[in-house]
Each structure stands twice: as C-alpha cells, then as structure tokens.
UniProtKB/TrEMBL annotation:
Family: Belongs to the outer membrane factor (OMF) (TC 1.B.17) family.
Record's signal peptide: 1-24
Protein's recorded name: TolC family protein
PANTHER family given in the database record: OUTER MEMBRANE CATION EFFLUX PROTEIN, OUTER MEMBRANE PROTEIN-RELATED
Subcellular location: Cell membrane
Keywords annotated in UniProt: Coiled coil, Lipoprotein, Membrane, Palmitate, Signal, Transmembrane, Transmembrane beta strand
Organism encoding this protein: Mucilaginibacter robiniae
Amino acid sequence: MFKNKFKFSYILFGILFLAACSNLKTVTVAPPENMPATYQNSPDTANIAALPISSFFTDAYLVRLIDTALKANPDIRMALQRIEIANANLKYTGLQLLPSVNLNANAGLEKYGDYTMNGVGNYDTNLSPNINGKQHIPNHTPDYFLGFRSSWEVDLWGKLRSRKKAAFNRFLASQSGYKMVTTALTAQIATNYYQLLSLDNELSIIRKNIALQSNALEIVKIQKLGGRATELAVQQFLAQLKRTQGLEYQTLQQITETENQLNFLTGKFIQPIYRDTSISTLKVPAVLKAGVPSQLLLNRPDIREAEFELKALNADIKAVHAAFFPALTLSPYIGYNAFNTSLLFNSGSLAYGVLGGLTTPIFNRRLLKADYARTIAQGNEALFNYQKTVLSSFQEVMNSLNSIQNYSQMYNQKQQEVQALNNAVAVANDLYLVGRANYLEVITAQRNVLDAELELANTKKNIFIGAVNLYRSVGGGWKR
C-alpha cells in the first residue's frame, strides 16, 4: 500500500514538473526594421555626441552655468538617488542567492495532556531507571534554544539569478537615466542662455529704434510748428514710439523670466546671469555632424535606458517562468536546546540538524500563469517603447539638421532684407524732408526695419537652438 502511495507521488511530481517545462517566451531586443543607414542630406560620419560639453560650447559663461547646474540641479540630484536605489536593489537581490543566518534565542512553556502521546511518554520516561534527575521532564515543560538557524533556497532553475540580472539591468538603466537627465539639462540651459542673448540683442535693437523714432517725432513737431506737418502726423509718430517703448518693457520682462529660469535650473535663487557675448557675433559650433543612425543605439541615453529596461523585463520573465518549477529549501540549525536553563550550556544540550523541503505550486498555478502573462505583456510594451524611442530619436536628428540648414539660409536672406529696409528708412526720411514722401511712408519704413531686425535676431537664436537640439538628439551633452 505504501509503495503504491510513493509511486503515485512520484507520478504526480513528474506531471507537475513536465507541466512547468512550458516554452519560455522572451522578447528580442531589436531596433525598428529598415532603419536608414544614413541621414538624408548628411553624408558626414563624425558624431558630435562624442564631444565633451566644454568642447562643443565655446562660451565660457555657458559652460560655467552648465557645470553649476550639474552639481546643484534638483533633477540631477534625484537621478543620482535613483541610481542609489537601483544599486541597493541589486545588492539585495544578489544576497538572496546566499543563505540567511539568524541568531535565535527562544523560550517556551508547554503543558502536555495526560492522555496524549507526549504526556504518556514523558510520564513513562520519568519512571525509567536509565535517566538521572537532571533528565526528568517536568509536568509543565519549558523549551529553551540559543543558537543559529539558517534558510537557503537552492537556485536550481535560475530564478534568483534572473532576478539579480533584472536588478543589474535596472541599475544600468538608472545610470543611463542619469545621463539622459544630464543631456536634457544641458540642452535646457543652453537653449535658455541663447534665448537670453537673443533677448539682449532684441533689447538693444528696440532701444536703438526708440532713439530713431524719438528723433523723428521731434522733427515732425518742429515741422508742425512751421506748418509743414499736421497734428495727425505727430500723433502717428507718437503712437509708433509708444508701441516700441511697450516692446522694450515686454522684452525686459522676458529677460527677467529667462534669467530666473536659468537660476532655477542651476539650483540658485536670485543670482545675476553673467554674459557679455552678443548673439549676433557669436559663432555657431563648427562641428555639426550627426554621424550615422546606428550610433544612436550607443550614444542616446534614453535609448540605452529603454534597452536595459527591456533586458530587465526579459530577466523578470525568466524568473517568473522558473517559479513553476519545484523549489528546494534547506533549513539547517545548530545551538543549545534544553528544558532547564541551568542545563542549557551543558555539552549534552548541543543540538543541530537540517531540514530539506521540496515544494511545487499546485493550486496557485493560475496565479503564476497570470503573473507570467503580465510580465510578457510588460516585456512587449518595453520592446515597443524601445523601438519608439529609436524612431523618435531619428526624427529629432532629422529635424535638427534641417532646422540648422534652413535657418542659416533664412538668416542670410534676413540680413539682406534688413540692409534693404535700413536703406529704405534713410531714403524715406530724405524724401519726407523735401516733401516727396508722406509721414505714413516714413512710419511704415521704420516699423518694417524694426520688425525685420527682431526677426533677424530671432533667426540667429533658432540656429543656435537647432545646434543644441542636434547635440542633444544624437546623444551628446552628458560628457564632461
């Protein structure tokens, strides 16, 4: 009968083991299909992502701002803490491969019933001539233990190793996340810095035009006194001057907000933002080569982060799959055990042993299957996120390359437009003085040159921002 029971147990265990050996479904780390070999209209193979921040940005004030931010920015500090969290989790999962050892000091008291196996056995034992007085078992039986107990799950199927691998990849992902925060922060500071230089230039243009328009207003007032102009002309020139003066205060507010944003990014309160370079004379970084698209997979921190997260989820899938298999746990112990405290440290009280247990899931298999399906779905989601990040990165590079090219061409055209409009203002003023042009033509010419000069300054800023975006989009901006 016992043989049949053991035979049935072996058969059941074999069925459960074979049922656990289902096909493992992992996710392949692969970029989107048909990824172009080169960027359109960009045959260069050098990659600006390899340039350190101090080599790409030549403005010492900007580099100093970036260095300050990398030490004090709240997002940077939080990213560093995420690395610490991932590192601690890696150590935690690694230690799960080792046996746990605990120092135990236990004390208990038990009253056996007179009509139980222990009660009858203890009574009979106390009457035995083979035991001495120290070995007599009291009616209320204390139990004292002082020693070490251990528990160790033997990693037969790699479940714990897979968890450690998942934690390791998430640690690497956290490092890439830190680099991504650094890249984004560098781009934010550079963008705001060039925005600030552009606003300084706009303010200079506005104030120059205020001076010109004020002079024109005085001339019209004099002409009115001489009967050569009307009050309507005076009011039109005055309205234009007030419009330009309003632009001055609007620009001053934008400068204040941009300075405050830079202070926020650098972790400061109210601090002056030092800069003395005019954006109109500042040179765009000479090396603006995007490299080849495949380099994005190595240089872009967000792509690397998505890749490591995908690998971590693959390890999670393996760990969950291994949970279907039987688990072997060993529980050894060694210490002193006695029912009398005076005998606890007697050499005869030394006790040791080991208990081994093999368990396999039966009724909770549906729970494991649901967890397995959820983890696979998360892995597929991570794959799509990885491919989306690669695709988005390629589009960002293309947009940045084209923005630099198009805004550079636009800047050349705007320069010619500003020159022509300045000539038009001079001609309009001369013709107005001799009565061959009316005041509206002068006002229109002055307004057009102001708008064109502001657009010229804004276009130069867009060229720099395009360069910053290209540097960020190819994976630069985190190397010191």
